[in-house]
């Protein structure tokens, strides 16, 4: 009997050590991906053109002409964050301001199709940040939208100082959508009037739980729990508090929820969780037929544009 107890104790220690090591590995893999940031700019230039052919040439010409300009601010952890911004195509008749927020391991270039849509089609001013640890921004790790929301609030404040608009929309895709939803539950200035989230996750915990099952066929315990402890100790936040659902419960401003019905990265169930969590204020939902993750615009560009524009016009009447 004593030998059995000793074997159980040894196995428990081995399991504990293995889960700790696996947790560290998962935390590093998720929050410190490689390649990233400036070193990955060329890949993302190609990705942007694949989503809307010719959009990089459009951006490069406007950037060279000084219409798109670079700027920085100091974000969380005193790191330098980068963004580009541009006035509306017809500045005197600008219809508002859009802050466009990119996804995981992307940067300000990837969702230029949205930037072009807002600037050229809707005649909005645009602010397009690189999140912490992405693009030309500094930082020590990915923040999965949770602490990023505080940085985006600073970018929104800068955009308002530039153009003094009374209608601003925050539009994010994937991790950028989670950033927008997490931001929506904060105490915000009145000029931030609407949100568009495209394929955002319900929480970091729920997303990593789904990814563990999809990629490794593993349950959340003990690896995800261990990774959560590592994240909390290293970076000061944890996967469960980084919740779109909890923040949406406090959101009273209009929001459009978009998700592809063929999304196998952020499961479609997250859309319903997010949509149902927002119990106050106006909301719309669009499930894009046949669209995989972050592919709703590429699959249905005209319908995407029409639905976003109609939502914005509706939102303007509600505030």
List the helices and strands and how they pair.
Elements: H1 2-31, H2 41-51, H3 55-64, E1 69-74, E2 80-86, E3 97-101, H4 112-121, E4 125-129, H5 148-163, E5 168-173, H6 175-184, E6 192-198, H7 204-216, H8 223-235, H9 244-248, E7 255-260, H10 269-277, E8 283-288, H11 296-299, H12 301-318
Parallel strand pairs: 3-4, 3-5, 5-6, 6-7, 7-8
Antiparallel strand pairs: 1-2, 2-4
Helix pairs in contact: 1-8, 5-6
Task: Provide a concise account of the structure shown.
The chain is α/β, with parallel strands linked by helices and about 325 residues long. Helix content is about 45%, strand content about 15%.
The 3D shape can be described as globular
Number of strands: 8
Helix content: 40-55%
- What CATH architecture label applies? 3-Layer(aba) Sandwich
């Amino acid at each position: 009997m004593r030998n059995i107890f000793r074997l159980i104790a040894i196995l428990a220690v081995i399991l504990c050590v293995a889960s700790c090591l696996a947790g560290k590995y998962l935390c590093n893999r998720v929050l410190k991906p490689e390649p990233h940031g400036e070193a990955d700019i060329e890949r993302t230039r190609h990705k942007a053109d694949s989503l809307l052919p010719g959009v990089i040439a459009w951006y490069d010409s406007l950037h060279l002409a000084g219409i798109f300009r670079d700027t920085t601010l100091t974000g969380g952890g005193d790191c330098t964050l980068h963004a580009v911004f541009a006035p509306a195509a017809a500045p005197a008749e600008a219809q508002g301001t859009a802050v466009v927020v990119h996804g995981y391991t992307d940067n300000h270039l990837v969702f230029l199709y949205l930037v072009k849509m807002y600037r050229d089609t809707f005649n909005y001013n645009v602010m397009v940040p690189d999140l912490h640890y992405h693009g030309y921004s500094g930082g020590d790790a990915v923040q999965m939208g949770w602490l990023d929301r505080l940085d985006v609030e600073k970018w929104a404040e800068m955009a308002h100082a530039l153009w003094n608009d009374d209608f601003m929309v925050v539009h994010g895709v994937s991790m950028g959508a989670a950033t927008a939803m997490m931001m929506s539950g904060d105490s915000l200035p009145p000029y931030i009037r609407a949100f568009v989230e495209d394929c955002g996750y319900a929480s970091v915990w729920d997303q990593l739980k789904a990814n563990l099952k999809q990629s490794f066929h593993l349950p959340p315990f003990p690896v995800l729990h261990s990774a959560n402890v590592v994240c909390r100790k290293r970076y000061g936040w944890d996967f469960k508090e980084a919740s779109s659902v909890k923040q949406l419960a406090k959101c009273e401003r209009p929001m459009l929820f978009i998700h592809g019905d063929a999304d196998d990265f952020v499961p479609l169930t997250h859309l319903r969780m997010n949509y149902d969590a927002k119990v106050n204020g106006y909301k719309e939902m669009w499930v894009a037929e046949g669209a995989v993750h972050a592919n709703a615009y590429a699959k249905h560009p005209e319908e995407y544009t029409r639905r976003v524009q109609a939502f914005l016009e509706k939102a303007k009447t509600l505030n």
